[in-house]
Write a structure and sequence with these properties.
This protein has a single domain, classed as Hypothetical Protein Aq_1857, Chain: A. It is built from two helices and nine strands. The N terminus is likely disordered.
Amino acid sequence: MTQVATTPPRGIMMTDMAVAQVKALREKQGKDLCLRVGVRQGGCSGMSYTMDFADPSSIQPTDEVFDYDGFKVVCDPKSMLYLYGMALDYSDAMIGGGFQFTNPNASQTCGCGKSFSS
């Protein structure tokens, strides 16, 4: 019987394209930063996604931290309730390109894909 190696599931998953794009954007900042992902009230569907670079010193003990080959993705516990299992992808397509969120917790998503309701 062959045993299949599995990696533990991550609360926030990122495709290779998303990681590469975020790392390229971070390089332009000229600092060693992490990516903070979260949600806030607003947007056309009730809640909108947030993404911003943050100094690693801002990571709180209660934050969830996911490591992607040395690059840290951070999420606060309240946002993690809405984002657990989300996949972040990136496309460089001229129409519909940019970051795309696939969130299994969203019961409804707006047309732009940047907000949702649960």
